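Handout, section B. The chain below has 250 residues.
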Amino acid sequence: MLNLQIFGYSITNSMYKREKYEAKDITPKTFVDLLHEHYQTESSPWLRGIPQCSEERILYNLKKTKDIDVAVIFHSDPKFYLVFPDQRDHDLKSDKDLDDFMARSVNPDDTYGLFNLEERYKDKNIFNLNVTAYPGEFVKQLIKFQQSYLQSPDIMKNRYYGALIQIDQYCTYKKIPVIHCVRRDSIPSWFSFTSGIVDWELQEYQYIDPKFPDYQYSIGYHKSVNSINEEGNIIIANTLKSYIDQLLQS
């Protein structure tokens, strides 16, 4: 079986085993689902569809994943930073916005589940959901402290560039067949990939962007789990299939 692994943020969401969407008007299969069906495989759900996934998390997950036949990486944005024990990453928020976000995110008993990532990745990369519950207020103050004293836009951009370079060099060194999906405004002008195939357009399908008037496929998460309509997901899947087949034949 092809070990196809997909890394990235919410654009890489899948309908597979998403029972919570069954009762809602959310129907399009995503390009991830279409790739799974085509190649009769399944990628790890803990590597993809990570809300506001940071570049550092992609690097961490990539290095923890073994025996990859093909990797598809939807690279992140420098505005997202790693929150290591959480199942998601974050962007810089005001205290009020963070309070509102946490009020929507904490469990009803006022706890917030944080993953023990080392437990999750042990035992030959079998993903174990080992969650420790912390008071929501504690987690909120932890994130506020990190935002106030350990983060800044410049620091986040430097960390993003560092992770980007390491991902590319790691794939080159390990000879991992890889497809890099990136946005032009996230990649510095002085950087060039040395590994795999680079696509500069597929990420734009999730945005309403006047620079790409032909790619207006975004319909929102209330209608699609990756915010892209059926047509857009089919186009992305077909494009990625051509890239994957090219890598497998080389």
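Note. The first strand starts at residue 4 and ends at 7. Compare this with the example in section A.
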